[in-house]
Write a structure and sequence with these properties.
5 helices, 135 residues, mainly alpha
Length: 135
């Protein structure tokens, strides 16, 4: 295996784990915040968890399988959770959770962005096709 291909594999693997770290950081952080830290009232708990964790369940299978298309559209979810983090950071009592959500969503976004870029280049190289944007 050539040195260039090894570097590409390392980049893809690193970005894959970066995306999963941000993703599971969001899932665990939202769950822990509403269950243990903030202790959301029981009648609001299920609604908050469904609304905030529900969208994160859609890309789970594709992210774990390393599908490029799933990583590509999961970037939009990361942007939604970034906005959610900014909204939480605007309140004094929720600022820590907001900053955590912002950091996790940025990690998720960067991981999915670069995974999509590097994995698609690797797939194009292994198929013998020239990359779409050779830079």
């Amino acid at each position: 295996m050539s040195r260039i291909r090894t570097v590409q594999l390392n980049r893809v693997k690193f970005c894959y784990w970066m995306a999963l770290t941000g993703y599971f950081g969001l899932v665990i952080g939202i769950y822990v915040w509403h269950i243990w830290i903030k202790q959301t009232p029981d009648h609001q708990m299920s609604i908050m968890l469904i609304v905030q964790l529900g969208p994160l369940m859609f890309p789970l299978r594709g992210l774990l399988a390393g599908r490029i298309y799933t990583h590509a559209w999961a970037m939009y979810l990361a942007i939604f959770y970034f906005v959610l983090g900014v909204w939480y950071a605007g309140a004094d009592e929720d600022m820590a959770f907001g900053m955590y959500t912002i950091a996790s969503s940025m990690l998720f976004f960067a991981g999915t962005l670069f995974y999509t870029r590097f994995a698609s280049r690797q797939a194009a190289d292994s198929a013998g096709k020239p990359p779409i944007n050779p830079t």
